[in-house]
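INFO  loader      accepted 1 record
INFO  loader      residues=326
INFO  predictor   begin
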Amino acid sequence: MSTIKDVAVEAKVSVATVSRVLNNSGYVNEDTRKRVLNAISKLNYMPNEIARSLFKKQSKTVALIVPDINNPFFPEVARAIEDVMSSQEYTLILCNSDEQVEKEIMYLDVMKQKYVDGIIIVTNTLTPKHIESRDIPLVALDRPISKDIPSVYVNNFQGASQAVRYLKDIGCRKIAHIRGPKNIINAQERYQGYLAEVENETWFSPELIVNGDYNIAKTTEATLKLLTNHPDVDGIFAGNDYMAVGVLKTAIKLGIKVPEELSIIGFDGIQLCRLTSPEITTIAQPIYELGHKAAELLLEMIEGKVINNLHHQFDVALIKGQSTKV
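INFO  predictor   done
INFO  writer      dumping tokens
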């Protein structure tokens, strides 16, 4: 494999001159530049990107840290981020944190050491102090971190309220909620949206709220207990689509007809909703737009631009499937 010294010998110039041509920095006359480029082509020389990143303290790479790669929402949002980054010749590194603060901090440190240019993160555990001490451009996705850190998210409260109102409008008389983890802000906002719509109903009971923790296995177990103890529940709002799939799975196992006997609505709008039978009604986030905006914000930070609007909240939309009554 050819080295930069080989190129310098072939072009009859110094290594420093080859470096200036490669980095497009400093003055090099046109004839010399052509000799260097011809030598690079002849020797099939590939610059050492690791060495260049150490020299420039940048690597044209960014990282995306997500809490659970098994949740289809995150691969879908990663696609949008990768589209934006690849168009600007950046490479995207995907990291799975399992919602563990220790892993998130480890990833921050590793990315800083490797001169990764910026990070997009989905977290409910990191604090501003964790981020500020590492001095790396960062955008929060799905869940805001603080007023000073750029973030992209949706109106979760409004979406949850819309979901429950829709179940009421189609005739559901007893609506339960499968909530996400209590420590995650978007799960809490969706729970609050549900509560605002039902807490004054005569049929409401706190027993109608069970924890699915954004996990299918836990959701199927929680739903089984819920429907066994409250067989008259005829509507369920799941805190995300991943859990809605668990609810549907449990209903089928119990022989409950969906949507004739039980209407199910989720939250997120992932492609998986279109693949189930019946297809799941959902409150859809503009997933691609969220990832696209987060990537744009990160690029602006990397380029040192002033960001006037740090926080971007998107609206959601009801997408009717077959899991709710007409």
